[in-house]
Amino acid sequence: xxxxxxxxxxxxxxxxxxxxxxxxxxxxxxxxxxxxxxxxxxxxxxxxxxxxxxxxxxxxxxxxxxxxxxxxxxxxxxxxxxxxxxxxxxxxxxxxxxxxxxxxxxxxxxxxxxxxxxxxxxxxxxxxxxxxxxxxxxxxxxxxxxxxxxxxxxxxxxxxxxxxxxxxxxxxxxxxxxxxxxxxxxxxxxxxxxxxxxxxxxxxxxxxxxxxxxxxxxxxxxxxxxxxxxxxxxxxxxxxxxxxxxxxxxxxxxxxxxxxxxxxxxxxxxxxxxxxxxxxxxxxxxxxxxxxxxx
Length: 295
Ligand SMILES: [Zn+2]
Prior knowledge:
single chain, alpha+beta, four-stranded antiparallel beta sheet, 4 strands, elongated, disordered C terminus, binds zinc ion
């Protein structure tokens, strides 16, 4: 803490002018920047982005300190944000330009295997997975603090180069929200960040193979709120990809043409999805031991 510290007030406009100056300077020397661009009021609008933000806000360690980063994230102060395996590196414009780094433990392999088992037969293509079009049970499973894929504060280490760095300054908070915004356009980066391979889920689908695809249930805001136990900003519909969305990089089997049909598919809520015994898997997960199939 540095309460005695004199910090000149920098207006939002001045800070943003500085941000574009800093960005121009870095680009001039050849640095490729990936700024966080948020349109509209919500930081994240799609499943993975919202779930990321909701997960962080669900921890009391963070809930009071995160909000200070919201406006920074929204108004373009995060001029660069890169997600790699187990880490996020970012540049945030405050009164100066600060370097933020977030390190996240890789997802425990047992937890990932349990999820892969629970998802067997349910995740049949990566597009559904990346759009969060999964059964409600599976969504609950993957967002649960006990069985889910999102990191807890214990697994996250934060740092910032600013002088008033305490546990979480607004620059770090802005970056954490920035990750949520980035997952809106590139949800596959969630799996990169957690150090797991999405393809494992398709491999599992191939192993069971007999269940029909069925249209997965879209998660509603209300559902997400109940899963995380907090209110989330209401979004009328889960939108399809925002305008500036980079194409989803798909490895292997998923067909790129599937993308063109996702809007209509995403808006349909068919009840025909065949239930796979997720509850069973959840129970199984409760007993820390994981039985490997055909090991
Ligand atoms: Zn800071």
